[in-house]
Amino acid sequence: MLKTERVDEIKEYIEEHETVSLDELVAKFNVSKNTIRRDVQELVDSGDFNKIYGGVCVNRSTVVPFNDRKVRSHTEKQEIAKLAAEYVKDGDIIFIDSGTTTPKMLEYIKHLNLTIVTNNIDLVINALPYEGIDVFSTGGMLERKTKSLTSMDNKNLINGYNINKAFLASTGVSINNGVTNSLPIESELKTCVVKRSEEVFLLVDHSKFDESSLTTYCGLDEIDYLVTDRLPHHKYVEYAKNRQIILLTPQTNTTKN
Asked: Among 65, 137, 176, 204, which is least packed, fewest CB within 10 Å?
């Protein structure tokens, strides 16, 4: 598990239980006590939690209730998906990546006549009722964790497609390491998709910035549209501006930087 994913899960666990001991977190997340101490300190520094003897508790003056946080996260992902979907037009040939945000685009494009190439098993199933959408699966072995289909042959498959627009996900984005993913076999597919697509959209929420996973599948400068739920740190805004990357957020809607 990546550090950012572990810290997010620790945060949710504390919010749900309100007060937890360090030993409880060690047992729950199967990491060392020193690692838990560092993760907890990071959460405490955010202002949402307080240290107590042998553990940590929520800061009741600032913390968002657990269920409200889940709703907010769902809403953020829906907003990102809706923004991206506005760029899909009748007749497009698009690639929709696996992930927690990208498949949500289907709700906003289901009325269109278009072709979708995808590695996401949920999208394949959910698109069944919409006869105007032709779906091409990348095929291969099911990766249950990401609900994606992976295969060593995906590279050859994608190279045969002419894709207008690709809508990609990432587990971590940084200026130095680019757009990253935790599964190498998925990264190979994403790299091919970037090369075969006329326009590349990256859909990531604010928590993915300044994070990196195991493999880089493209440079950040290879992205045409960066779609997120809020404006990122100014260094990313400047980076996008200097490289003609269009930055999209619910607040700016269409901001060419």
From this structure: 176
